Amino acid sequence: MSDVNDVETELLKSNNTNLEEAYIDEYWSTYRKHIHTLLAWGYVDTQNRVQAKQDEPAITGFIAEAIQDRLDAFDSPLWCNQIAIKDDPPIPGGGRTGRNRWRPDLIFESAERRPRPKYHFEAKRLRRLRSINDYLGEDGIHCFLSGRYAFESDEAGMLGYIQCDNVSTWVKRLQLAIDQDSQGKNELLLLSPQRNIKVVDAFPLEWMSKHDRSAGKNIAIYHLLLDYCITTPVSLASATRSVRSKKKG
C-alpha cells in the first residue's frame, strides 16, 4: 500500500510541476506580447521625432518617453497598470558602485509577481557595416551572454535602430553574421538555428536566437529592428530648397 501512495505522491508532484511550468510559460508569453506591444506603440509615436543626427541614447529616451505616455493614458488597456519602464537604469553587479554601475538601455518590469519579472533590452544603431560588430560585440548581445545583464532571465531583447538601408537587409546581415560565427569560433555560443518569430503583427521580421552563457542558464534573444532611416534630414532638405530658389531667382 505504501508503494501505491508513493507513486500517487510522485504523480501529484509531477502534475503540480507541469501545471506550474505551464503557468510560467503562459505568463511569459503574455508578458512578452505586452512588452512588444508597448515597443510597437513607442516606435510609432517616435517615427516623426527621430532625426538622423541623433544617437542611440537619444532614440531610446524618445521611445521610453512615448511608452510612458501610453502607460499613463486613461484609455490604455488595464494590463498597462502592471508594467513599468526604466530608461538607462543603474543595476547592481560586477563589484561596481555609484555612477560606475552597469546601465542596460531599457528594462521593463512587471508588478504582477514577486520577485518582479524584468525584461532587458540593449539597443544599437545600424548605420554602417561596422554596426554589425557593435550589435554583436561586448556592449551589444554579449552583455547578455556574459551575464552582465539579465543574468537571472531566460530571455531578453536586442533593438536595432536602422539608419541606412532597410529592415530586411539588416535582418539578413545580422543573421548571416551570427551563423558565420557559429560555424567558426562560436563566440556567440549559439545553441540552435535562428528562427523567425512574430510576437505581434507590428514586427513581422523579428527573429529569435538561443545562446549558451559563460555563466548561468541559457538565454533566448528576441531581435527587433526599428526603421528610423532618414535619407535626407529635414534641415538639409530645407537648405537644399533654399539654394534652389536662389538659383532660380
Describe the overall structure.
- Helices cover 42% and strands 17% of the residues.
- By secondary structure, it is of the alpha/beta class.
- The C terminus is likely disordered.
The CA-CA distance between the termini, in Å, is: 104 Å
Morphology call: globular
> Oligomerization state of this entry?
single chain
**Global structural class:** alpha/beta
Poorly predicted ranges = 10-17, 232-249
Largest beta sheet: what is the strand line-up? Answer: 1-2-3-4-7-6-5
Rg result: 22 Å
Number of domains: 1
- Share of residues in strands: 15-25%
Q: How would you state the average pLDDT, rounded?
A: 83
How many extended strands? 7
Series of secondary-structure elements, N-terminal to C-terminal: HHEEEHHEHEEEH
- Specify the number of helices: 6
Q: Tell me about the largest β-sheet.
A: 7 strands, mixed
Helix content: 40-55%
Write a concise keyword list for the protein shown above.
7-stranded mixed beta sheet; alpha/beta; globular; 249 residues; single chain
How is this structure best summarized?
Helices cover 42% and strands 17% of the residues. With 249 residues, it is an alpha/beta fold. The protein has one domain.
Secondary structure layout:
Layout: H1 2-46, H2 56-72, E1 83-87, E2 106-110, E3 118-126, H3 131-136, H4 142-145, E4 155-162, H5 167-183, E5 195-196, E6 207-211, E7 219-227, H6 234-248
Parallel strand pairs: 3-4, 4-7
Antiparallel strand pairs: 1-2, 2-3, 5-6, 6-7
